[in-house]
Amino acid sequence: MANQQDNVDDVTKKTGEMSLNVGAKAFVPKFNVKAPVFAPRKATQPAAPVAAAPAEDAGVAKPMTISIGGSSSNNTTEAAAVPKPATISIGEASTSQAPAATDAAPAAEPTPAESSVDSPASAIPATEAATNEVAVEEEEEDDDELFNEHTKEHTNVIFIGHVDAGKSTLGGNILFLTGMVDKRTMEKYEREAKEAGRDSWYLSWALDTNQEERAKGKTVECGRAFFETDKRRYTILDAPGHKNFVPSMVGGAAQADVAVLVISARRGEFETGFERGGQTREHAVLVKTAGVRTLIVAINKMDDPTVGWDKARYDEVTSKLTPFLKKTGYSPKTDIIYIPMSGYTGAGVKDRVGSACSWYTGPSLLETLDGLQSVERKTNGPLRIPISEKYRDMGTIVSGKIESGRIRINQKMMLMPEKHICEVSNIYGANEAEEKTAISGDNVRIKLRGIDDGLVQNGHVLVDLKYPCHITREFDALLIIREAKNIITSGYKSVLHVHTATEEVILSKLLHKVNAKNQRSRAPPPFIKQNEKCIVRIQTTKPICVERFEDFPQLGRFTLRDEGKTIAVGKILKLVETNTVNAAV
Question: pTM for the full model?
Fold first, then answer.
């Protein structure tokens, strides 16, 4: 023990003779892993050399020490609770080490633990950053999951044209050629059609499932079916061709991405459909108003004995159609595609026409559809699903096209304009197959939970809880008069068709007439007539869900009809009376 005490005294004596070299390299102590956590404060100014401090001072906090050759009188538990400068103690004398010698070595970046000790408020940004990072990772995982589930693009194709042009027959043959309807089922339809004396109608029965439609051979409602190719998934919207069922056709056009205008090349049938009063003209105008940019003109029934794949007849039809379609707003070079075919035999539908039509070497209908440019989708936009159909089947089921956003099972939504909260119970996609998710562009059926079917109407819109759409009874719009027997003045009444909604409206004010250079008149016009443009104020009898055209085109374009004719088309410029809901559930 005496020898040990002599060694300590000798070390103490030599230490007292030591002097501090300011230019020496900073001393970085090595700590025991079992020692309390060391959290130094961040240095703000270069620290000056500190002389030896007294061992005890009642008014000064005790420093955390590292003892060499003796027991330390400092309480390490207390030192761990409050950050203090590190000191090195030899015996009883201690020399304070500067927190960081900034002149000699750069200070290390503080760790998250250090920052939280130094300033509790600094932990808040770190927490928010971590939360945002988790949210981004979850969103990326959701996007990856959606991408894996929806690898093929979904395109909605509407078949339009005059009655008896062969729309349903063409659609039924597409379902058969793509394997969506098997041969046994088609043979059954053929036997039933033959027994009913409608031998050539059996292909259309794949789409016309209603007994009334099969008996009359006329499509009444806008039928819907699905088929798939190697490149894309498609929804067929089979529009009725009779003028009495144009409202159903308008609802189908609101869901379409591409239109197939079916023209009968048979002598007399084309002229009947194209002349004034036929539906060929009106259907072309309506799909353009609905925002359909690409128009495929299927010159059907080219195999008819009155035609016999005659190129002269094909040229005659196209030469009459092109000027009218150009006037409607379609560009003959980029927006219109002509294809000769036979919807009954299938020539030019899936496979090319071949030797039957040697003068045409272009692609078939399905090849043309697969080769179209992709449609821009708003998958990450606010949810918008205009309801086109609703019924009850062990719950409330609605159908419609997802114009924007995405849905998944158990997702909460709001039904506008009624402002009812509901939840997604099931999602049915192609051929009633259940899906976990659906994205913008998909045409789906949704089973809703928490809402009665009596509260749902065609034209209502399913939206996000946080981003609802606008509800209004009055708005300003740019109107183009296409066909009007008489002049139109303020107080004119008609029927408004906007997305899938139908509502009676009144032109309450004529605000400005617009000339060919899109210049507005200062004074309101007393009246407007055919082929004129005017900015008008429209009032609806009930609240409707709409948006400005520049904000959301699908909910901002409309058609006015009266007496069974399309009077005008327009787009919404301003919502005068609006009502929105900011809900967060």
Answer: 0.71
